[in-house]
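Table S2 (continued). Query chain:
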Amino acid sequence: MEDMIRQVLQMDEKTKKLVKESEKKLEAEKAETETRLNQLEVEGHEESKQAAIDEYNRVYAKALDEVKEIEEENQRKIDAVDAFYQENKEDLVEKAFRMIIQ
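Corresponding output:
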C-alpha cells in the first residue's frame, strides 16, 4: 500500500513538473508571438508609410508635369501675341494715337 501511495505522489510530482514546464513553454511562445506581432505591426506601418510617400511623389510629379505643360502653353501664347504685336506694331501704335487724338 505504501508503494502505491509513493507511486501516486511521484506521479503527482511529475504531473506538477510537467504542468510547470508546459506553462513556461506557453509563456515563452506567448512572448515570442507578441514580439512577432509587434514586429509585423511596425513593418506594416513602415510599408504603409512608404506606400503613402510613393503615392505622394507620383501625384506631385504628375502635378509638376501638368504645371510645366501649362507654362509651356502660356509661353507659346505669349510668343504668338508678341509676334503679332511685332508684325503690327506700327499700325497698332498709329491706331492708338488716332484714338487718343480724336
